[in-house]
Specification:
With 200 residues, the chain is mainly beta. 8% of the residues lie in helices and 50% in strands.
Length: 200
């Protein structure tokens, strides 16, 4: 068997490239897109910060998605709804790493973990969504939220550091109300299936 000797210069270049890979690695360690069908546990890597979970469910029937943490044995579900459904939910930083998602679904599905900062700056939609607000001023905390539908509606603020606040809307059926956002609000999580608007 022949062996090849690696020069010191070549080894140095290799180690520099190897180390650079880790220096430039993304802060979120997760599969970019996880897909499956029916009931399953999706592996999302090891996540230790607040993120957004984007989802899509095909077919027709009940959908339940529950986070799987390294140590928490009884987490609360992220969503309970019916397929078909697309949208996003907020996954707040936990005391232990987020490592997966337990999925009960009737058909094809996909999950993707994305940074909180990637939330879109939109003011309306028809499905659950995490949205980003433009920079708020001291006199800019008042918003109007409206929803046309018959299902559950939950709206809560999220700070720039990824911490959630108390819901400003927690109801069911059609809603139109003025809400006051707490200081430091950067993102909003809207759980509503049906037309909604969140505007100044």
């Amino acid at each position: 068997m022949r062996t090849r000797r690696i020069s010191a210069a070549a080894l140095a270049v290799f180690l520099l490239a190897f180390n650079s890979t880790f220096i430039l690695a993304p802060a979120i360690s997760a599969a970019p897109l996880v897909e499956g069908s029916g009931n399953a546990v999706a592996d999302v890597g090891s996540i230790k910060k607040s993120v957004i979970i984007e989802f899509a469910f095909a077919g027709s029937g009940s959908v339940v998605v529950t986070p799987v943490f390294a140590k928490d044995k009884r987490p609360s579900p992220w969503l309970k709804s019916n397929a078909p459904l697309t949208g996003s939910v907020f996954a707040e930083k936990h005391s232990s790493a987020l490592i997966g998602a337990k999925i009960n679904a009737p058909d094809q599905w996909s999950l993707e973990v994305v940074p909180l900062a990637s939330a879109p700056k939109v003011t309306s939609g028809t499905t659950p969504k995490v949205i980003q607000l433009a920079k708020m001023t001291k006199s800019d905390s008042l918003r109007t939220f409206s929803y046309q539908g018959s299902g559950e509606v939950i709206v809560f603020p999220i700070s720039a550091k990824g911490m959630s606040g108390f819901p400003v809307v927690d109801s069911s059926g059609s809603v139109k109300k003025k809400v006051i956002l707490p200081r430091g609000t950067k993102f909003i999580s809207i759980w509503a299936v049906g037309p909604w608007k969140f505007k100044k």
